[in-house]
Amino acid sequence: MNAPMPDDDQPMREALQRDAARVPEPPFDSALHHATMRRIRALETRESTKPWFVSWPALAGAAAVLAATIIVLWIPRASPHGAAPVVATAASAIPSAPASLLSYQAAAREGEAALFAALDRDAAELLPASSPVFNTALR
Amino acid sequence: MKTTLLILALGAFALASTLRAEETTRPPINPALLYWQAAAVLPKLTDDQAKDLGAMASGKIPFDAAKAQGLLTSESSLRLMQKAANSTAPCDWGLPTEDGPEMALPHTSKMLEMASLAILGAETSFASGKTKEGLDWLLTTQRMARHAGAGDLLISNLVQFAIETNAIRAAARHCLSWDPETRQSYTAMLQTLPPLHTTQAAYRGEHWLIDWVERKFTEPAESKADGEKFLQSIVAGGSKPEDKEALAAELAPGAIQAALAELRSLQSRTEAAAGKPWSKAEPELKALDEEAARSSHFLVRASYPTPASVAAKQYAIATMRTMLDAALQHGPQLDAAAAATYHDSFDGEPLLLKKAGDGALTLFASHQHPAGKDLSLQLGK
């Protein structure tokens, strides 16, 4: 039969118990106990009403990025017209040079008032004054 | 005696040669070049000045001499405008049609601005009692209208009509105060003006645009992307998604030619109809409008301008000119009976003269233009 192994922590544990016995224990305060318990419960309730992602901002950010990625990757495949959207999306932002036939035709399609508004605007913007640099007298 | 005659003959020959040489070395200048010089030395206007300029020139607000003085500050610009308007050379804006719809038309807006200044020049002269000078400015404006219409595009055509309308309205505001000789003189000068560019010519002139699109899609050396960009612009800005898809289908290889062929056919028939009297032109133009609206080609439906309303402008201008002729002929003695001997250019109906409570006279056509609005010309201020 083997002799019990000596506990290396035993002297330390006994020293701590001795010190603890020296600290005077206050009498039980039931009012303080209930007030503390109410505060703890209130904290638990408030935390439980917050969405989970409020407490986890990093996780929320990651989820948003993931969701956006999924949407971006999914939309082109979901389109029923494979090549057509190229035209459709480009058409919404066709640049036309100012004072060009194209820009005036586009304005005229909106009506005569729009055409003459475009002409008025261009009259004000064409032949702009040169940079003040050119105001410097030649030396 | 023989010697004297010989010297005179030689002198005349030398003088004639000199004059011919002068004409050869200094031919009349293309008005377009002079207009650009006039535009280059125009003073920069503030937003308020630009608004005042347009509103006073069109008669929407009364002429204000002080404001006009602030606008007519560049003498060199005004002189160049008059020089350009009086040039006998053909007006060639040098339009780079090879650029297709990206072709720049900066002269159209500048011509509108300068023609408005010319009207203010006329108003300023009339206000200071210089009637002859005022008439010169009105004729300058009317020549500018014709020059603005050069190039035979529908846009240029509309600008031409807008300038001419302003000039006719300005003349009508003053003509009742002119003596009979002045009215007669102005009538005679109006007869010397070249005719306005017709809407028919503008439709004919725009054939090149269809040719340009076709070249972009059929010729290997051309950029198909340029053609696609132009056609896409037709559906840009608020069109329905199905329209965009329909256009995409028409851009497929081989499909575009059918749409362009239909567009070309419509354009030719519109051009022919626009040259007819209104009684014949109107039903034909409306039928073409409906045909375009029913087309199976989206491109045709979307890009074809409503020809009836565009073409009606030239009949409206011709009617206004008839109204002015009536006022110039009769002056303040114009009455309803005399007015009824003049007819509008739409249905040939007699003109109506109405007198307002304050004594202001206005000539009316029975035909409305634009739809829902009276076509009229106020005589006097």
Q: What is the rounded Rg of chain B?
A: 25 Å
By DSSP, the count of extended strands of chain A is: 0
Indicate the low-confidence ranges of chain B by residue numbers. none
Please give the count of helices of chain B: 18
Element-by-element helix/strand order of chain B: HHHHHHHHHHHHHHHHHHEEE
Number of helices of chain A: 7
- Arrangement of strands in the largest sheet of chain B: 1-2-3
Q: Tell how many strands the DSSP assignment of chain B holds.
A: 3
What structural class do helix, strand and pairing data of chain B support?
mainly alpha
Question: Given the C-alpha coordinates, what overall shape of chain A results?
Answer: rod-shaped
Q: Structural class of the helix and strand makeup of chain A? A: mainly alpha
Explain what you see.
The complex is a heterodimer of chains A (139) and B (381). By secondary structure, chain A is an all-alpha fold. The model of chain A is unreliable at 1-5, 45-56 and 58-93 (pLDDT under 50). In chain A, helix 6 packs antiparallel against helix 7. Chain A has 7 helices and no strands. The termini of chain A are far apart. Chain A has a domain at 60-84 and 99-135. With 381 residues, chain B is mainly α. Chain B is 65% helix and 5% strand. Chain B contains 18 helices and 3 strands. Chain B has helices at residues 2-25, 31-40, 47-57, 65-71, 75-86, 106-127, 131-148, 154-174, 180-192, 199-205, 207-218, 224-235, 241-250, 256-274, 278-294, 298-303, 307-330, 336-339, and strands at 352-355, 361-368, 374-379. Chain B has a 3-stranded antiparallel β-sheet with strand order 1-2-3. In chain B, helix 2 (31-40) packs antiparallel against helix 5 (75-86) and helix 7 (131-148) runs antiparallel to helix 8. Chain B is globular, with a radius of gyration of 25 Å. The model of chain B has no long low-confidence stretch (mean pLDDT 90). The interface between A and B is large, with 34 and 44 residues.
